[in-house]
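Still learning. Show one?

>
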Amino acid sequence: MLVLQESCIDPLGSLVIYAPIDFPAIKSAINGEDSINIPILPSGFIISGDGRPGKLGSRASTSSSSKRTGGLLLMVAFQILLCTLSHSKQLNMESVATVNTLVSSTVQKIKADLDCSNVE
């Protein structure tokens, strides 16, 4: 398994987009075979300011005595390939729990890396 990744930092924030790709599929594409059937399911996250004055952890200078610090917004997106759904067209609880664990653990790891794991 290989991971195709792109990242960017600009004044609006930072983003990381990635897609796991099956190694044999990439090898066949490199060898000139048709790549139309290679599933690329990008996932990723964006970290941007919340629009409040100041930077995270610093005091913003305002004319009033109340001072606020700016915060961060974390947006996470996943694309997940599911096998054909049952006739009821609903996800089973095991799939829902797996996705919930994936999203929760990803958010917790990002928060820990940003040293804001105690922030909800």
